[in-house]
Write a structure and sequence with these properties.
3 helices
């Protein structure tokens, strides 16, 4: 009886290459994932900083403009002026909320990683058939 040692190293070599390829592919995907997490974190921190600055400056500007309008138009009636300003600020708040919601829904986190995983899946599915 001849040992089937000739076929075994070939299968073992193929298995080793497949495992090494899978390990390298997995490592690449994890590196891509970590880079995207880092970029996402940096973007969020930057956007929060801008948002806080914008809100502070907008609040100061609205307070100054409101006070000057109320003082300038006091003879017309302070209640009417305050009602108009309140309505204007409410409309601006709704508009800002709509823009914020639209931007939030359009933001795609990990899009590069997910696309690469889809391509990997398609390549594996195509070669397995």
């Amino acid at each position: 009886m001849e040992p089937s040692g000739g076929a075994s190293p070939g299968l073992a070599g193929i298995a080793r290459r497949m495992i090494r390829h899978m390990r390298i592919t997995g490592q690449n995907r994890l590196e891509l994932f970590s880079v995207e997490i880092e970029e996402g974190r940096d973007e969020v921190v930057y956007l929060i900083g801008l948002w806080v600055g914008l809100m502070g400056l907008a609040l100061l500007a609205m307070m100054a403009l409101s006070a000057s309008l109320i003082i300038a138009l006091w003879p017309l009636g302070p209640v009417l002026i305050l009602a108009v300003l309140g309505l204007l600020y409410a409309c601006l708040a709704v508009l800002t909320g709509v823009v914020l919601r639209t931007r939030w829904r359009a933001w795609k986190l990990f899009e590069g990683s997910l696309e690469q995983l889809r391509r990997d899946h398609a390549a594996i599915s195509g070669s397995a058939v």
